[in-house]
TrEMBL record:
Protein name (database record): O-succinylhomoserine sulfhydrylase
Pathway: Amino-acid biosynthesis; L-methionine biosynthesis via de novo pathway; L-homocysteine from O-succinyl-L-homoserine: step 1/1
Assembly notes: Homotetramer.
Catalysed reactions, semicolon-separated: O-succinyl-L-homoserine + hydrogen sulfide = L-homocysteine + succinate
Annotated gene: metZ
Cross-referenced HAMAP family: MetZ
EC number in record: 2.5.1.-
InterPro entries: Cys/Met-Metab_PyrdxlP-dep_enz (IPR000277), O-succ-hSer_sulfhydrylase (IPR006234), PyrdxlP-dep_Trfase (IPR015424), PyrdxlP-dep_Trfase_major (IPR015421), PyrdxlP-dep_Trfase_small (IPR015422)
Its job: Catalyzes the formation of L-homocysteine from O-succinyl-L-homoserine (OSHS) and hydrogen sulfide.
GO molecular function, one term: transferase activity, transferring alkyl or aryl (other than methyl) groups
Lineage of source species: Bacteria, Pseudomonadati, Pseudomonadota, Alphaproteobacteria, Hyphomicrobiales
Length: 402
């Protein structure tokens, strides 16, 4: 295989993001295929026993086993690293595999994690319930309270973990400010950047050490496959992540990696279109009867609007709002929608809506949900690629049932 023979990696890195997402990381076989090849293989053969030995010792950089690495996965990883501005990336089987690997690969019994309390339900599970099983303590804090981050630090604190914007309340955490606190504490800052996407926010540039994604969301963005990604430095990969991934095996399927690789080519177009519709829809929702609150980072009434404008390059593709009548009102509204479909997924070409209190965050007590700002009337709308007027008509009609 040969890399892109016209453009060197250094030249590709200087191209604009949209171009990097088409040209980056290409490995072509001697056949000279236009589309990236899908290498559905478990293992690889060696010319000699000496070559096999060199591969396993790390003296020969070739492939060994698809649980360790794969040419198709490598193209996806390289392309996303170019977009994110990361030294390296490693793909996993799902977003939660990426989150769990980024945490566990560097932690041991006796260590301590500080995390923002506003997290996706599965992420809260890992922090609150899984890590303590291995003797790793955790503290949850209000992500917007810098004093709380500082007060939570212990001598054994090793990791800070947050997502911004948060799921589902679209609360923002000042990544640069938390990064300063984490560095002073000697901790590694992991940022889940799913809601912002790599198109709209760059946590590494803001001081984060590691960025994680559920590539299932916007990166695929068409409801097809699962995948996750961890982006980090070469040192973090060598010291922590690579051995963990190699020995525990949360590897991405080559087919899924190929789907994600092709998804990256259209990511800027899809995010731009969905974001434009989300902004329009947020403004229209705010004027509708039956809607008591609209949350969208690019709106002037968002509590952290100034931070959003400073930290992000756009408001994103998700709109959260509260429907009158609590759970019953929200259910009546959801059940009347026809264009927008009920689903717990997001970042899709199709518009999807979720009732967090009974799905993604149902395992929490009412008190815990209230602490996170999740009410029974709250719904999370992931705006897709449909015409915004059709989405508006659908929402307006459904709200009449509230």
């Amino acid at each position: 295989m040969t890399e892109n023979v016209k453009l060197s990696p250094a030249e590709i890195a200087q191209l604009r993001p949209d171009t990097r997402l088409v040209q980056g990381g290409i490995l072509r076989s001697p056949f000279g295929e236009t589309a990236e090849a899908l290498y559905l293989t478990q293992g690889y053969v060696y010319d000699t026993a000496e070559q096999a030995e060199a591969r396993f010792k790390g003296d020969d950089p070739g492939f060994i086993y698809t649980r360790y690495s794969n040419p198709t996965a490598a193209m996806f990883e390289t392309r996303l690293a170019l977009l994110e501005g990361a030294e390296v990336a490693r793909a996993t089987a799902s977003g939660m595999a990426a989150v769990t690997a980024a945490l566990l690969c560097q932690l041991k019994a006796g260590d301590h994690v500080v995390a923002a309390r506003a997290l996706f339900g599965s992420c809260r599970y890992v922090v609150e319930e899984l890590l303590p099983r291995f003797g790793i303590a955790s503290t949850l804090v209000d992500g917007t309270d810098f004093a709380a981050w500082k007060a939570a630090v212990r001598p054994e604190t090793r990791v800070f973990f947050l997502e911004s914007p948060t799921n589902p309340t679209l609360e923002l955490v000042d990544i640069a400010a938390v990064a300063e606190i984490s560095k002073a504490a000697g901790a590694c800052l992991i940022v889940d950047n799913v809601f912002a996407t790599p198109m709209l926010q760059s946590p590494l540039a803001l001081g984060a050490d590691v960025v994680v994604y559920s590539a299932t969301k916007h990166i695929d963005g068409q409801g097809r496959c699962l995948a996750g990604v961890v982006l980090c430095s070469e040192k973090f990969l060598t010291d922590h992540l690579q051995t963990f991934l190699r020995q525990t095996g949360p590897s991405v399927s080559p087919f899924n990696a190929w789907v994600m690789l092709k998804g990256l080519e259209t990511l800027p177009l899809r995010v731009e279109r969905a974001q434009a519709s989300a902004g329009t829809l947020a403004d229209r929702l705010a004027a509708l009867p039956g809607v008591s609150k609209v949350i969208y980072p690019w709106r002037a009434d968002h509590p952290q609007h100034a931070l959003a404008r400073r930290q992000m390059r756009g408001g994103g593709t998700l709109v959260t709002f509260e429907v009158a009548g609590g759970k019953a009102g929200a259910f009546r509204f959801l059940n009347e929608l026809k264009v927008v479909r009920i689903s717990n997924n997001l970042g899709d070409a199709k518009s999807l809506i979720t009732h967090p209190a009974t799905t993604t965050h149902q395992r929490f007590t009412p008190e815990a949900r209230a602490e996170m700002g999740i009410s029974d009337g709250m719904v999370r709308l992931s705006v897709g690629l449909e015409h915004v007027d059709d989405l508006t008509d659908d929402v307006v009609r459904a709200l009449k049932a509230v």
